[in-house]
Amino acid sequence: xxxxxxxxxxxxxxxxxxxxxxxxxxxxxxxxxxxxxxxxxxxxxxxxxxxxxxxxxxxxxxxxxxxxxxxxxxxxxxxxxxxxxxxxxxxxxxxxxxxxxxxxxxxxxxxxxxxxxxxxxxxxxxxxxxxxxxxxxxxxxxxxxxxxxxxxxxxxxxxxxxxxxxxxxxxxxxxxxxxxxxxxxxxxxxxxxxxxxxxxxxxxxxxxxxxxxxxx
Length: 216
Prior knowledge:
Largest sheet: none
Order of helices and strands: HHHHHHHHHHHH
Organism: Gimesia chilikensis
Strand content: under 5%
Protein name: Tetratricopeptide repeat protein
Mean pLDDT: 90
Keywords: TPR repeat
InterPro entries: TPR-like_helical_dom_sf, TPR_rpt
Low-confidence stretches: 183-196
């Protein structure tokens, strides 16, 4: 297994560990510590570790070392501003609870890669959960400009329009997404796992979650 494959496997294992750190079981904390130690061993053994600017701060945050992750990602970002370093810094800020900084950095990251829409989804999600529906809708609409049927942005935009009192049958639209028949062949899940993005099952789950929020 080459170094890139080792790093990819390490990342995939780390992604399984839930957040926040304060809610981890003892076994999950031990696993997070093991993964961080494994990464640091890779750093000692190799001059350059692929995707270190993304993986290292994530592992620090998974271990509850939020300030260390913020400092590291800020340094990465200030030394070489790019989509990767901005996203790493934004994620560290979000995990540390600095949502204003996270929104600023995700917005900056979107400018580094005009084809990317995931950062606008992140901005939308943060603002939606804070009840800032105008800002959230603006972000989702930017994502929809890039992919007009995005299965995450579309129901999210419907929800924001409903909460803002914009004329339209937005709850009906949400229900239509929630009640649609998703892919049952298994291919969609495989393809989205390989290539990224959101499939119909993501849209269904997102719409169902937002319907529940709307009815609370």
